[in-house]
Write a structure and sequence with these properties.
Two copies of one chain form a homodimer.
Chain A lengths: L14 H20 L3 E2 L5 E3 H4 L4 H6 L3 E3 L10 E5 L4 H10 L8 E10 L11 E10 L4 H18 L5 E6 H11 L6 H8 L2 H15 L4 H10 L6 H7 L5 H19 L5 E3 L13 E6 L8 E5 L5 H4 L5 E7 H11 L4 H4 L5 E5 L5 H13 L4 E3 L7 H10 L4 E5 L1 H6 L1 E6 L4 E6 L3 H14 L13
Helix pairs in contact in A: 1-5, 5-11, 6-9, 6-11, 7-8, 8-9, 15-18
């Protein structure tokens, strides 16, 4: 028999998993919409030439490729590839619909991407990215609003200890130049500097040397990228005549000042922040929490990428949050509101024999009109113990029981499963009676009786 | 330069498209949750052996196949395939998580599927299915609740002219037997009978004969599957000793009676409804509207499919709604509420010079705390005419303008773009002032002044 596990590196999301994800997506969406971002969705696959060459040599290898349909199958010919990130599809969309999109297009996009990585703990082949990008302006208010929006999302989700690190591509270049690293070795040096947390200062210096950087420059590099990011300290590190370096530092400080005005929290200037993707051209940013290795997300300004599709450059700045990492931390910390992991059904209805099925369905309909979530225990016929047990296992707050006696009296027996209490209620008022109790438990979880969503 | 169109048979969803889809998904989700269905999501691809052989010969050809990663790429070796429907992944999930899922598992799943069909008008290679399935019970209340839930979704979306056609696999068999069609030709005969709408009664009769059915049986077939579905008329058509046929007819009538009690609308028994998929074992159903060729969705009972993965049969019944068809009809009929196709931004903020940027961002933050959706016109510096024009093109109801004069007076100039009216408002109360006006326009679109979402 075929394996029934999902493919390696992918996951099935059972109901509680989906509810957690929907909670996060709901917060992200509503916050981003308040910042003027609009939703965009692109197909799961792209023509393969759209993706090839956009993610570097390593990236090319990790793109999932789809066989051309029909007669070509035997040749291994491929024409499509699964979405690898949300930025390249955005650049294609900008080129294709430039004339109908707003001049300053701000979009959010929350969709899965796929990477043919070797599956490992915490490394998936299918995972969701939540991106915002603002296209069309070079103004620093763009960065400020993106930082504020990301900060707002994390605060609204309940994070209070995140730190947003900021840097600027050209400031990195100025500091490398000030350390005596030749321009041709900048990219290589950044790879080493980026490992500081893992291999320590001495490790970085050694690696810089193996990358062809002189002992003197390597030692300077380590000290230049060390320590606090106070403005005066950084200015002192820049070469005296490096006007661009000073202007860039002022630019990133302006962005931080504006982002603070816009409500962004916990920003720090970190001159050692590099971020891998080579398409960044200006400010770069990353957000992290203390108890998670790696970041919750990152972004920056990339003024040239859209031009690869459009034929002329369009300024752009964006930020990508990783949904799985957010969910991992929120789950570990118990940050989800009780309703998210709580019961999915407010009322279960059981009927004692088949003659009462239609009555049970009518009661269910009336309860649903009261916006209650109702499940019918499908098997009638004196199996009340089974219905009770099942309702308990589903953590349903109320079980409504329809029997011949109750019908004769125009009543419904309603059992409060948490309170282990049962009473008979007039059939006519039963739906409203249960709706009122469910609503009370929802708004005041401390009240006596069943409290949907807060039973564990 | 690479083409910037999405791949053939796929679509980019620009903001208004996404909002339409989100509206439909939101209704489907909330209705299905009231019926006790819980969300499930599965990966975009499955191991290829999970899908092969499940959809017939034609289906096999339409499965998108993904190249095995790494060194195997050259050989055309495939190990994964894109999701083709939501039912086979559900059957796999049932087998994998049987012990942790509720005994009566009711799930909804709204995800895209992919088929390597030749793209054509209205035929996509990527499209969304919205499925509900109830696993674990043979009770007819299951069918009744599924029919009521689908009916409720369509009514809530605003459809008032849909018709749900119902039939039963075994009733089809009984009527074919009564017509004199040998059991071995039942499947083949149904293909012909299913074409009645397209080729007429004479066409069906001719095709039945070419499929090896006698002239007499073909003629009987046409008359047996013709005409109204009244109980007496159908009973008269059954063979006298066909107890199973009579019992099946009673069963489907019971389902309709129970579904009516559960609130399902506009059901008709249509003995000619066949539905292609061979895995149905009991009731089959289909829903359509007059102005759309084909159906909006369909489903039925399939008691053997889960067994292909689990090793033992588990009863199941489900219904799949096609999102694209629902959206096509709703768009053509103008059924989307105004807010869905309306403006995405409540307030735009413009600043007259760079010194006012931080003020503008603070104002934006305060407006967002009032739950307004705010966009900053990013380019300051006396470009008020540009900001005005842009706000107009974005159909933003209010433009808040921050200039030096306003700052000196502690005011904000607020322009109502629909009313072409501008007034100065105290800076301190401006966010609340705008929030109140936006809220008023939202709840009373007939009121004077800008009405977000109802301007066109």
């Amino acid at each position: 028999m075929t394996s029934t596990k999902p493919p390696g590196g992918t996951r099935d999301f059972l109901p509680e998993d989906v509810r957690r994800r929907e909670h996060v997506v709901g917060v992200i969406r509503s916050v981003y919409e308040r910042y003027g971002f609009e939703p965009l969705e692109t197909p799961a696959f792209e023509n393969i030439e759209t993706l090839l060459g956009k993610y570097g040599e390593e990236g090319n290898k990790l793109i999932f490729k789809i066989l051309r349909r029909g007669e070509h199958e035997g040749t291994g010919d491929v024409d499509l590839a699964l979405r690898y990130d949300l930025t390249v599809p955005l650049a294609r969309v900008m080129a294709q619909y430039r004339s109908v999109l707003p001049r300053f297009f701000k979009r959010y996009q929350i969709q899965p991407v796929w990477r043919a990585d070797r599956p490992a703990r915490g490394r998936f082949r299918e995972f969701y990215q939540c991106d915002i990008d603002a296209i069309g302006s070079t103004s620093p208010v763009v960065e400020a609003e993106i930082l504020a929006a990301v900060s707002d999302v994390l605060s609204t989700l309940g994070f209070d200890d995140f730190v947003i690190r900021l840097n600027h591509r050209r400031l990195l270049a100025s500091l490398l130049r000030a350390s005596g690293v030749p321009d041709s070795l900048h990219e290589s040096a950044l790879v080493a500097i980026d490992k500081r947390d893992k291999i320590g200062a001495d490790g970085v210096r050694a690696e810089l040397v193996t990358r062809g950087i002189s002992d003197l420059a390597a030692a300077r590099c380590v000290s230049v990228f060390e320590g606090g990011g106070g403005e005066a300290a950084i200015r002192a590190k820049l070469l005296p005549g490096d006007n661009d370096g000073h202007a860039t530092l002022s630019e990133i400080l302006t962005i931080m000042e504006l982002a603070t005005a816009a409500g962004a929290q916990s920003m720090v200037l970190d001159t050692s922040l590099a971020r891998g993707l080579s398409y960044y051209t200006g400010a770069i940013m990353e957000v992290a929490v203390p108890d998670l290795a790696g970041s919750l997300g990152g972004g920056g300004r990339y003024d040239n990428l859209v031009g690869m599709f459009l034929g002329r450059d369009v300024p752009a700045c964006g930020f990508s949050l990783g949904m799985e990492r957010i969910i991992v931390v929120m789950t570990e910390r118990g940050m989800f509101p009780p309703a998210v992991s709580g019961v999915a059904v407010d009322v279960m209805i059981a009927f004692m024999n088949d003659d009462l099925r239609a009555d049970a369905l009518r009661l269910a309909t009336e309860c649903r009109k009261q916006r209650l979530r109702v499940e019918l225990f499908p098997e009638g016929g004196r199996k009340l113990d089974k219905a009770l047990k099942y309702a308990g296992s589903r953590r349903v707050p109320f079980l409504a029981i329809l029997g011949e006696d109750e019908r004769a009296k125009g009543e419904v027996a309603i059992r409060d499963l948490a309170a282990r209490h049962q009473e008979s209620v007039s059939r006519a008022v039963a739906p409203g009676w249960m709706a009122a109790r469910v609503e009370r438990a929802r708004t005041d979880p401390g009240a006596a009786g069943a409290a949907p969503g807060v039973q564990d």
